[in-house]
Recover the amino acids of this structure.
């Protein structure tokens, strides 16, 4: 294990770093540091201070790049992301201030019209962030942010299908069905790469729980992110919105949200919608790779509910498009 979130030595070192950083910022901890959530891939602790709660997050080795990514985005776009108070890039540690309720927290229950409007506004703000982060793409790759550009995804699909654990989790029939998709998948990736939309940061787990309401909307929790075709963010976003709104794949509400996001990108609307469809398909492989990173060298035992996530995302390649 790279870390053990409950190992006393690890916890002592982490808390010492937190206290040192807060002392240097003039907002020392005023009480015990408390673990709030522990997952196999990350852990979050709450730190009380006179200036309000502070939050410490640590990631396992394959997800450590989040600290560097969060820092890079904060330097480029400080008004549109949660700016860290401190980062340790080597150990993958982040310290942030409390930023209040998330968008999910403030969406009114039983009011789908308002929810759709707020989701659309958020997606437009996120698209603008991606556009403005495009010049960072090469720098982010150099920082270790995963490469999920369309031109590399066919190789990653082949790598996953060759993994004995993935093959076993899929089972013979599903493995054969996904393998049969490989030629079409390569064509989708080639078409997407030729779409003219440049690679940029792609959150890969964009939900209403990973953004603080605006304006300006501020985005956080980049532990699944990669450098990829930007429209891939719609895969998780539309799935989350569908759950919130209680609608299925293909619902007109989701098409409205897709179009709100695409309105921030220049180009022919039909071509943009085609690129969004392709991105929704191929991003299933980057989601599988994200789960593979999260579960490999985990810091805690992996619960059964997460153990098949890689295979489930690959198996989704044979399913219908989100919109």
């Amino acid at each position: 294990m790279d870390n053990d979130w409950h190992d006393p030595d690890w916890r002592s070192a982490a808390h010492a770093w937190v206290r040192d950083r807060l002392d240097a910022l003039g907002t020392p901890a005023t009480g015990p540091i408390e673990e709030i959530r522990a997952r196999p891939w990350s852990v979050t602790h709450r730190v009380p201070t006179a200036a309000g709660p502070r939050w410490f997050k640590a990631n396992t080795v394959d997800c450590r790049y989040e600290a560097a990514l969060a820092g890079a985005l904060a330097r480029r776009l400080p008004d549109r992301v949660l700016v860290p108070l401190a980062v340790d890039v080597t150990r993958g540690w982040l310290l942030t201030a409390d930023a209040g309720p998330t968008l999910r927290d403030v969406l009114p229950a039983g009011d789908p019209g308002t929810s759709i409007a707020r989701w659309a506004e958020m997606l437009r703000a996120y698209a603008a962030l991606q556009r403005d982060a495009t010049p960072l793409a090469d720098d982010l790759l150099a920082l270790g942010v995963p490469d999920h550009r369309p031109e590399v995804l066919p190789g990653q699909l082949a790598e996953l299908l060759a993994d004995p654990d993935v093959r076993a989790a899929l089972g013979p029939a599903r493995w054969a069905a996904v393998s049969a998709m490989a030629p079409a998948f390569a064509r989708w990736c080639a078409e997407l790469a030729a779409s003219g939309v440049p690679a940029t940061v792609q959150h890969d787990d964009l939900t209403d729980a990973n953004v603080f309401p605006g304006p300006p909307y501020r985005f956080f929790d980049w532990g699944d992110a990669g450098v990829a075709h930007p429209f891939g963010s719609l895969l998780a976003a539309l799935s989350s919105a569908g759950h919130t709104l209680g609608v299925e794949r293909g619902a007109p509400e989701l098409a409205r949200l897709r179009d709100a996001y695409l309105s921030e990108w220049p180009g022919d609307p039909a071509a943009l919608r085609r690129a969004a469809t392709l991105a929704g398909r191929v991003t299933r492989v980057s989601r599988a790779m994200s789960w593979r990173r999260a579960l490999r060298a985990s810091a805690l035992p992996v619960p059964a509910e997460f153990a098949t996530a890689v295979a489930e995302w690959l198996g989704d390649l044979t399913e219908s498009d989100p919109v």
In short: The domain at 103-318 is CATH 3.90.1200.10 (Aminoglycoside 3'-phosphotransferase; Chain: A, domain 2).
